[in-house]
Amino acid sequence: MTPLRALIRPSARRRPAPMTPEETEQRALLLRLVSLLLQYPDAELAAARRVLAATVEALEPSPAAERLAEFTAWFTGQEPDALQRHYVETFDLRRRSSLYLTYYLHGDTRRRGMALLTLAQRFRAAGWDTDGGELPDHLPVVLEFASLAGPGAGEAPLRQHRRGLELIHHALTDSDSPYRHVLAALLTLLPPPTGADLRAVAELAAQGPPDEDVGLDPYGAGEFAPPDALVPPAQADPTFVPPVPSPPVQVPPVPPRRPEGSR
Predict the structure, then answer these.
(1) What is the pLDDT of residues 235-250, one digit of tens each?
(2) Which residues is 45 bridged to in the sheet?
(3) pLDDT score at 209
(4) 154 with 160: CB under 8 angstroms?
(5) Residue ranges of the chain with pLDDT lower than 50?
């Protein structure tokens, strides 16, 4: 019998060639730029637009650099207020283009809370701690980690959530948002999607993420809930009422009194 290994084409077993230090540095810079460009365009980021555009222009030629240049050409030409409105309308008001990656894989379920916890533990295990201003699955946070931790373990969360990234890109393309160029740049850095990936993305686009599990807090104890999520308050301690002594047998029983405050 022919060994299975002999039936696999050599090209299918070939691993990517290791990157040179220069290539690793360039890749980290690309991921850092994508992270910055996907953050909310507050006053500080708006003031740095020219510097960001110049940094993109100085990148080595690549498909990712080309897509980022298309975005920064638009980014630098907008008024700050218009940029902020577009960002909120694109990422905060549309679920299909939300930047919280675990939402696409788990929806608002208890499994999402566990995924957030696992991701936070991965960050801490690598010696990196976020400032707590965003959830660990927020795409700019994941990209920042990838740029610091390297192509292997650092980019693992991006590869894990590739289908969600594809869906975000499709949604941005459908809405004709210039941010589609930033997602396209990121996708050029990841392995090409498989047929199973594309089928899953089409199904996810049609049906949406999983529904919330009834009766379960999707964010564990609330430590990973989004800022606008309703987290139920902690259950109050039970109130113990001492038992009322039974009346003597010879005395007719007194009708029970209605507790104060009851209706």
Answers:
(1) 334 333 344 444 444 4
(2) none
(3) 74
(4) no
(5) 1-14, 212-263
pLDDT value of position 16: 59
CB 38 within 8 A of CB 177: no
Tell me which residue of 86, 55, 85, 60 sits closest to 72, measured CA to CA: 55
Residue closest to 116 by CA, chosen among 142, 146, 137, 139: 137
Nearest one of 231, 188, 226 to 100, comparing CA atoms: 226
Please tell me whether residue 137 adopts helix, strand or coil conformation.
coil
> How many CB atoms lie under 10 A from the CB of residue 64?
25
Name residue 100's beta-bridge partners.
Answer: 138
Sign of the C-alpha dihedral computed for residues 145, 149, 153 and 154 taken in this order = positive
Instruction: Give me the half-sphere count of Cα atoms (radius 13 Å) on the Cβ side of residue 25.
Output: 5
- Amino acid identity, position 46: A
Biggest alpha carbon–alpha carbon distance for the chain: 101
Q: Contact 153/126 with Cβ under 8 angstroms?
A: yes
Tens of pLDDT, residue by residue over 178-211, are: 999 999 999 999 999 888 888 888 887 787 776 6
Residue 39 contacts residue 138 (beta carbons within 8 Å): no
Report how far apart, in Å, the C-alpha atoms of 111 and of each of 141, 196, 197 are. Answer: 20, 22, 20
| Per-residue pLDDT at 1 | 46
Residue type, 197: D
User: Partners of 138 in the beta sheet?
Assistant: 100
- d(Cα 187, Cα 184) in Å, to the nearest integer? 5
The amino acid at 139: L
